[in-house]
Write a structure and sequence with these properties.
The radius of gyration is 19 Å and the shape is globular. It has helices spanning 7-15, 23-26, 100-108, 136-149, 153-174, and strands at residues 3-4, 34-38, 45-52, 55-66, 69-82, 122-124. The protein contains five helices and six strands, in the order E-H-H-E-E-E-E-H-E-H-H. It has a six-stranded mixed beta sheet with strand order 1-5-4-3-2-6. Helix 4 (136-149) crosses helix 5 (153-174). The protein is of the alpha+beta class and 179 residues long. The chain folds into two domains: 3-124, no CATH class; 136-174. Helices cover 32% and strands 25% of the residues.
Length: 179
């Protein structure tokens, strides 16, 4: 998994006594199980909530793609660190489109931005990066599929692997004596 962020903003967040943590540290959220929720008005933006050094943090990020594939663009880290709580998200939905930068500025001012999210997220397993070598021909095939489906090459690979694993489980379950 690759991350991208503004290093100057990260430095400002780290120096801010209300924040005390930069984007470099907050990446730890993705190394443990974390909660992920999608923006209600702009679907390409997400909120991740997870633990960093025994404190709960939340982060707004976007999934983007460049010539190397998909990466996480960290937009802002918001909210003061909180102790574990059962009730850390409200059930609210905002139908008005607001830019990521506007939400980030509101969050940086300490305003509640939960209304901009669906609050219908789910727990995510930690993500690990894996390198795989493909032939040029196979990459061309994957790129054609990605273009036809209007998704990233990485998303095509994940989709095909998930389908193959599911088919394998179904086949194994149908064999006599297997469960």
């Amino acid at each position: 998994m690759r991350f991208h962020f503004d290093p100057l903003k990260s430095t400002r967040l780290r120096k801010n006594p209300k924040r005390g943590i930069g984007f470099e540290e907050v990446q730890e959220i993705f190394t443990r199980p974390y909660y992920q929720d999608q923006r209600s008005d702009l679907p390409e933006q997400y909120r991740a909530i997870g633990w960093v050094d025994e404190k709960l943090y939340s982060l707004i990020f976007e999934m983007r793609e460049d010539e190397e594939g998909e990466f996480y663009h960290l937009v802002t880290r918001y909210g003061r660190p909180r102790e574990r709580s059962e009730n850390f998200m409200k059930k609210t939905v905002n139908k008005t489109a607001v830019s990521a930068e506007s939400v980030a500025r509101m969050a940086d001012k300490g305003k509640d931005v939960s209304k901009f999210f669906t609050n219908a997220g789910r727990m995510m397993a930690p993500v690990q990066r894996v390198n795989v070598d493909f032939t040029a021909t196979m990459l061309e095939e994957l790129d054609r599929e990605a273009k036809g489906m209007n998704i990233s090459r990485q998303a095509v690979i994940k989709t095909l692997l998930r389908r193959a694993l599911d088919e394998n489980y179904v086949a194994a379950a149908s064999r006599p004596g297997m469960k």
